[in-house]
Amino acid sequence: MCDSYERCSRSLVTGAALLATLLVGACSESGDSPVVAEELARMEADNVVYGMSQILTHEGVREGVVRADTAYFYRDSSAVHLRGVELTVYSEETGDVRAEVAARRGRLETESRAMIGRGDVVLRIPSDDRTIRTEVLHYEPGADRIRSDTFTVMEEAGRVTCGRAFRSDLEFRNLFIENARTSGCGS
Question: Could you tell me if 72 and 126 are in contact, meaning their C-beta atoms sit under 8 angstroms apart?
């Protein structure tokens, strides 16, 4: 406590001056320092998840697993927008890997479990060592279909086949390449 009125007054004045200096200094800063990274501030997503992994099931049976470097969720949508996408599709009977898909980005419809991969899409079918490359790939488990409506290149057993589009069932028993040819494929 203060011994005298004069000493208390000086302490109070000094403290008030110090506080005023700090407040003025804080207010005079430009305010340019961001609260979050600029990239995050530009995002319109309601939620952003890094290192996402989601198991896709149908009637309790695992159909696939979707992984993404980044997933963007929006309140008004059942779609999840993905970056750095990997999809693994499993056989319902054996649980073996039926196919693997990698793409730069994608869109997962959470209600239907359908996914669209975009940008340097690679579909690998391990059972017959087949690889399909395209720019856009539609995975539609409800329709038992996987397809692309864009230029497609398929490599199988040392052969290269290309065409305008392709479609297949999810067992890859009925794979069809539209306007298929084995020359001029750009490989």
Answer: no
Give me the phi and psi of 177, to 5 degrees please: -110, 120
- List all residues 6 or more positions away from 184 whose beta carbon is below 8 Å from its beta carbon: 162
Residue 30 backbone dihedrals phi, psi, to 5 degrees: -70, -25
pLDDT band at residue 120, thresholds of 50, 70 and 90?
A: very high
Predicted confidence band of residue 5 (pLDDT cuts 50, 70, 90): very low
CATH number of the domain that residue 145 is part of: 2.60.450.10
**Widest CA span in the chain:** 101
**Chain-centroid distance, C-alpha 62:** 20
State the Cα–Cα distance between residues 41 and 46, nearest whole angstrom.
11
pTM higher than 0.70, yes or no? yes
Kindly tell me if the per-residue pLDDT of 117 is higher than 90: yes
| Residues facing 14 on adjacent strands | none
Its domain, for residue 69, covers 45-178
Instruction: Give percent of the chain with pLDDT exceeding 70.
Output: 76
Closest CA to 83 of 103, 58, 110: 103
